Protein: SulP family sulfate permease
Organism: Mucilaginibacter yixingensis
Amino acid sequence: MEQHGIAAGGLNLRKYFLGKNLKKDLPAAVVVFLVALPLCLGIALASGAPLFAGILTGILGGIVVGSLSGSQLSVAGPAAGLTVIVLNAITTLGNYEAFLLALVLAGVFQIALGLIKAGTIGNYFPSAVIEGMLAAIGIILILKQFPHAVGYDADFVGDEGFKQADQHNTFSGIFGALAKINYGAVVISAVSIGLMIWWPKFKKNGGVPAPLLVVVSGIVLSLAFGGSGFALRDKQLVHIPIVSSAGEFFGLFRHPDFSHIADKQIWITAFTIAIVASLETLLSLEAVDKIDPIKRVSPTNRELLAQGTANIVSGMLGGLPMTAVIVRSSANVNAGARTKTSAVTHGILLLISLLFIPKLINLIPLSCLASILLMTGYKLARISLFKHMWHKGLDQFIPFVITILAVVFTDLLIGVGIGMLVGVFYILRTNMRNPYFYQITNKGDRKVINVRLAEEVSFLNKAAIQVMLTSLPAESTVIIDGSNSRFIDQDVLETIHNYKHNAYTKAIIVQLVEIHDHYDVPKLKELKFNVSNA
């Protein structure tokens, strides 16, 4: 009865919060839809896949992952970090249907990772690295969207890598766009940014989200500029496939070719996609939790199960691999979303746009969508974040800055990997400094050195303890006190016993206090909660 009451109470709370947050989630869904639309198309184009595959993956990322995930703010879709893998896989495997089989198997691998609780690896990313990744994504958005805001960029929308497929890099792409500047796009971008800043301050805005107003004004200005020197070129507009009938729509779906199941390359591709997609998902999930205003913690293993299920469905229908994507997720947070309703609704909006209003969608200028992402980037890489990290100390600021530089000048996963190495170095250095403290007193002509070990002394502390012991003065009395220690690693115990064994060569007397021969790994005490009805 008590369990039933709790469950009912939870259901009522869920309904309450859903109703309360709907006025925030629906406008946020519109923003994410507008951000996701060109990204889905750009990533499909860069992956060598049909444009429909990109839209389909965005739809499934919203509806399937949004429904199954435990994260309230994360948004899934096709990921820029997988474009090279997908492009190479389609080329190597020979046809798209064989690649779809690899994607289905990748989804199975992800479900297996979720079942064995591999998602807990997401809890070990250093905070400074995640903050650096967020700031880097913000900077990349500003640098990569600027060409689309002022003119034209041959690189695909959504690229996050420094080296681009069009033989440019992030910086040369900006100069290339300035050489092809279109003043119509500049005007639309300027008006869009002005609306993004001004409209939320206008109290009587009727609840209309600023990005929706930006799109409407962009379409109006684009049509007004037609036939003039400010007219936009065809490549400066959104392009989604136009579906004329239900038969044509269902004809766009493609299915995996299971005859390739014995091909070793299929399994290698599947495993590669599963690992890379899972890592990017866990990174994005951790980053979204960082910027969640309510500071909720997303269940990582459940996320892997949701992503795996959605990738299986995507592979069966002809889509692309998906991950939790930080660009869409951060746009979702910045737009004020509170629950997963926003992510699910954005998937439904993608489906509606494809089926019912593709011609209207194709009137949207990329420059106004770029302006939305420019504002998102500015919020992620705000100056106050750099000040905050500086005040936290160099051990946080240095990994933060190196992560930013590494992500901007390589790509997301490589950059975070470099940041992780630097972050772990500082963690180890801090850890090595804190395994003990000691006090020196004099007893007659002899120094007495009392070394008190910390509560937990791990293998990482071995080097620091060894250096400390070998530096103690000769002809002294050394008392190594483990009375405060719940755990001492076996390697550290060996170091202590070896020191005691050889101390006589320096005329050192060593006394061990409560240093046991073996310690069990400390376990968390079981917490008990008394639940009662309010």
Residues 199 and 210 are 6 Å apart (CA to CA).
